[in-house]
């Protein structure tokens, strides 16, 4: 496998949480790569141990400095096959891997993909909402006032929108979202999920006001939020039942 890759960074998708979703190709790349770059020490070590792979690795995360990104980029172009993984899902999407990709390309290296799960794609696919067009917002601002301005801007075109949030901040963000929707006179259906693919997965479909009623009972979890297109753009037959009664689902063994 090493002979197939020179000066190449391969972005390898890992599971969102359910280890059974890791592909055979991903396992082979992790096993045979010349250089491995992970996101966090504990998560990467746990993954390698679960696959019975003994390998040293470098890190690229939110604490990685621009100088360290440049050094990692040089390492890639000086090597054969380098694999980049994130803690969950696909690297390069809302994580520092994006900066490393740019650095490798600037240095004349190659970038390839070993695709797999992405949280926003998984959430969109099971939301039941129209997905063309949609806007992916990534993570919103930590500041409430800035976050509300961002939400207003993303909501204005009327597309389906999807965004990530942290386990520690999502409740405040959902309350800000409700405030913005009320202020804009919007009445959209929301699909909210926690811990996609895990036994603890939680799903909600309905109006945001109904979700807010149970918000304080929900665990921290890793959330993805999907908002439907504007009411006049929705397929009413698809959502008439959901509009009348919210849907809650918990998935446990």
Describe the structure concisely.
With 253 residues, this protein is α/β, with parallel strands linked by helices. The chain has nine helices and eleven strands.
Description:
Pfam families: TP_methylase. GO terms for molecular function: methyltransferase activity. This is S-adenosylmethionine-dependent methyltransferase, YraL family. It is a single chain. By secondary structure, the chain is α/β, with parallel strands linked by helices. It has two domains: 2-114, Tetrapyrrole methylase, N-terminal domain (Cobalt-precorrin-4 Transmethylase, domain 1, 3-Layer(aba) Sandwich); 119-227, 2-Layer Sandwich (Methyltransferase, Cobalt-precorrin-4 Transmethylase, Domain 2), CATH 3.30.950.10. It contains nine helices and eleven strands. The protein has helices at 24-32, 41-50, 66-77, 97-106, 119-127, 144-155, 170-184, 208-214, 236-244, and strands spanning 8-12, 35-38, 58-59, 81-84, 110-114, 134-139, 160-164, 189-194, 202-207, 223-227, 247-250. The strands form two sheets. Strands 6-7-10-8-9-11 form a six-stranded mixed beta sheet. Strands 3-2-4-1-5 form a five-stranded parallel beta sheet, with helices on both faces. Helix 3 crosses helix 4 and helix 6 (144-155) packs across helix 7. It is globular. The two termini are 39 Å apart. 34% of the residues are buried.
Fourth-tier CATH superfamily name of the largest domain: Tetrapyrrole methylase, N-terminal domain
Biggest pleated sheet: 6 strands, mixed
The CATH architecture name of the largest domain reads 3-Layer(aba) Sandwich
Number of strands: 11
The run of helices and strands is: EHEHEHEHEHEHEHEEHEHE
Structural class: alpha/beta
Strand order of the largest sheet: 6-7-10-8-9-11
- CATH fold topology of the largest domain: Cobalt-precorrin-4 Transmethylase, domain 1
What amount of the residues lies in strands? 15-25%
Number of domains: 2
How many whole angstroms does the radius of gyration measure? Answer: 20 Å
First-last Cα distance: 39 Å
The helix fraction, in percent, is 25-40%
Indicate the low-confidence ranges by residue numbers: 232-244
Number of helices: 9
CATH domain class name of the largest domain: Alpha Beta
Mean pLDDT: 90
**Overall shape:** globular
Keywords: Cytoplasm, Methyltransferase, rRNA processing, S-adenosyl-L-methionine, Transferase
Organism: Leptospira weilii str. UI 13098
Domain Tetrapyrrole methylase: 8-211
GO molecular function, one term: methyltransferase activity
